[in-house]
Specification:
Layout (H helix, E strand, L loop, with lengths): L2 H17 L3 H5 L11 E13 L2 E5 L12 E5 L12 E11 L8 E14 L7 E2 L28 E2 H4 L9 H6 L5 E4 L3 E2 L9 E4 L25 E3 L17 E2 L2 E8 L2 E6 L5 E3 L1 H4 L16 E5 L10 H10 L6 E6 L9 H15 L4 E4 L8 E6 L4 E3 L13 E2 L13 E2 L4 E2 L14 E7 L6 E7 L13 E2 L6 H21 L5 E6 L7 H10 L4 H4 L10
Parallel strand pairs: 3-5, 6-8, 11-14, 16-17, 25-27
Antiparallel strand pairs: 1-2, 1-4, 2-3, 4-5, 7-26, 8-13, 9-10, 10-11, 12-15, 13-14, 17-19, 18-19, 20-24, 21-22, 23-24, 24-25
The structure holds 2-acetamido-2-deoxy-beta-D-glucopyranose (4 copies).
Length: 547
């Protein structure tokens, strides 16, 4: 058999190739390992950290490629038992791509470690300082598969796990973190950009360049920039617990830990619990963007008082917010849910109004339209000594209010556009509102004003079904975005009708749009309605545009 010796040669060279693999070669320069599913032998690395279920090893023969991580996680609950940080070891195992959910990016790891041998001990382990020993995290884009806009449409067109793009850690945030997978890193001057979750997981940035930094030390997302430079600090490897009391802006001692893909996000798992050094409350002054009480027109506030019922323990707190933060505005858009089988929101709104009255002496009236089934709906609170409904005509759940020309000569109250139902709902039968809340429209007259003004109180569909910015699916799914675009069109068209009849009409659209100001539904809304975002009108700096 002539072919047999040839086959033997091929097998032998494959064998020696596998034996020679470095950690960088195992990781490769993409998200997925070129050796996924393959057995590897005699992998050499320095033990840089130990976790409860495995160890992290770093290559002793690194390459010069920034895209290939020099470290890797070795999964095995007993692999670390007889090993110490600082040991240089060799081991055999299997290259595995692991994720616990199809929506996550894979973690490249070595599983089933065996034949672990210690070559030397007591070697120095030096973490890589992010931004000094590594590149700095990219600040704008997440991956090359997002088309330059993580909220761009269409979304969900590619999966990292399928395309497996070559990493560009200079351009893309997830590529950057992936290129350090398994690596021991230090964050200098870490600062919390969010309050931790109940496990103490905390989003931070270090001393590297950031975009969108706001005055309260948060990172504000803006058009095509969703801040991939932020990273989550997760559960410490040594079993200690991070504080759950940190606040946005708190500074921590330098954090050293390993980069790991956990629960669908890139994390740094610190060697030990993070320690706060400076508390934000001392450093961050409150906003000065407050009413001076000198407004000679109508003050308007908006507050989605989620899940409020007459018996809610937090009802007085909501009332206090309306008094202390919103300064008991003349008119308020709100949403009051909780489906308790009672369709009328009368009792809830009455309880809220009574609570505000008790705490501040201010008396509100309210207006809404009961929905036919589900209970969540928008409502208005208003101070009747300042504003009242203009030509009120209570709409029912299925009544579509329409804009009609006023009966006067175009000047003064009589000529202003009126609503056939006031308050009323916009096209309740329109498909765009299927399983969602219809906007509540009202025309108002302020005391002494010559013309009415109009409010559109929205609560567009929520982002249910959306996927994570750190997820496998690119660009990430912005849940129900098509629904909100349709809702933007219907809401915007209605407002355009008011403005067609009276180009000088004052219209406020407020409530819960369930969308970022720079994403398509709001662009559609602006284009169709001809309304302008209040943040644009007031020229608030882009990084201060958040609530
Ligand atoms: C395993 O790797 C070490 C160096 O990391 C080398 O000294 C040794 O010869 C290798 N063993 C085999 C069987 O290739
Ligand atoms: C991406 O993965 C999801 C599962 O998370 C799957 O439903 C979808 O079809 C995949 N899309 C592409 C373009 O491969
Ligand atoms: C609303 O509730 C108040 C107090 O509970 C009650 O006096 C009033 O009759 C109710 N109005 C309607 C329309 O149900
Ligand atoms: C808005 O809806 C109208 C009527 O259905 C449609 O003709 C138009 O294309 C839509 N516009 C946008 C921006 O979606």
């Amino acid at each position: 058999m002539k072919t047999t010796p040839v086959l033997c040669v091929a097998l032998a060279s494959l064998q020696s190739l596998a034996a020679a693999l470095t950690i960088a070669e195992i990781n490769g320069n993409k998200f997925l390992s070129p050796y996924s599913g393959k057995s590897v032998t005699n992998v050499t690395g320095l033990v840089i950290a130990k976790g409860p279920s495995g160890i992290f090893i770093r290559s002793t023969t690194p390459d010069d490629d920034k895209a290939t991580s020099e470290s890797i996680y070795v999964y095995g609950t007993s692999v670390g038992a007889n090993l110490a940080v600082g040991d240089v070891i060799t081991l055999d195992g299997k290259v595995t791509e692991y994720r616990s959910n199809a929506a996550y990016i894979y973690l490249t790891e070595i599983t089933s470690p065996k034949n672990v041998q210690v070559l030397s001990s007591g070697n120095t382990v030096t973490p890589l300082v992010i931004g000094k020993d590594t590149l700095s995290p990219p600040t704008v884009q997440y991956t090359s598969l997002d088309g330059g806009d993580i909220y761009g449409l269409p979304n969900g067109v590619a999966n990292i796990s399928v395309v497996n793009p070559v990493l560009d850690p200079t351009q893309y945030g997830l590529d950057f973190w992936e290129s350090l997978s398994g690596e021991l890193v230090t964050i200098k001057k870490p600062q919390a950009i969010k309050t931790p979750n109940k496990y103490g997981d905390t989003w931070v940035v270090g001393d590297w360049a950031t975009t969108g930094r706001n005055k309260h030390s948060g990172l504000t997302m803006s058009d095509k920039d969703s801040n991939p430079e932020a990273i989550i600090i997760g559960t410490p490897l040594d079993g200690t617990k991070n504080p759950t009391t940190a606040k946005m802006g708190d500074e921590f001692e330098d954090i050293t830990g390993v980069v790991q893909q956990v629960f669908g996000f890139y994390y740094i798992l610190p060697l030990t619990a993070v320690k706060t050094t400076t508390f934000s409350s001392a450093a961050v002054p409150p906003t000065t963007f407050l009413s001076q009480g000198k407004c000679t027109a109508v003050t308007v506030g908006s507050y989605n008082v989620e899940n409020l019922a007459p018996t809610s323990a937090h009802l007085p707190k909501v009332a206090a917010h309306i008094i202390d933060y919103l300064k008991t505005p003349d008119l308020m858009t709100t949403a009051v849910p909780t489906d308790d089988g009672v369709v009328s929101a009368n009792a809830t709104l009455t309880a809220l109004v009574n609570s505000i009255k008790t705490l501040s002496g201010v008396t509100y009236s309210f207006a809404d339209v009961d929905p036919p089934g589900g209970n969540i709906r928008q409502a208005y609170l208003y101070r009747p000594e300042v504003v009242s409904l203009y030509q009120p005509n209570q709409g029912g759940p299925n009544d579509a209010t329409a804009v009609v020309p006023g009966k006067g000569n175009g000047k003064g109250l009589g000529g202003a556009p009126t609503l056939t139902f006031n308050p009323g709902r916009i096209e309740p039968a329109n498909e765009a509102w299927k399983d969602s809340r219809k906007p509540l429209v009202a025309a108002w007259r302020a005391k002494g004003a010559k013309r009415p003004f109009y409010t559109v109180n929205v609560h567009w569909s929520s982002k249910g079904g959306g996927t994570s910015l750190h997820g496998d699916i690119r660009p990430p799914i912005n849940g129900v975005v098509a629904g909100r675009i349709a809702q933007a069109n219907v809401t915007g068209s209605f407002i355009a009708q008011i403005l067609a009849l009276d180009p000088t009409a004052k219209v406020i659209a407020a409530g819960d749009f369930n969308e970022f100001a720079f994403v398509q539904p709001m662009k559609t809304f602006s284009a169709v309605s001809k309304m302008v975002d209040l943040d644009e009108v007031t020229k608030i700096p882009i990084e201060e545009r958040y609530t």
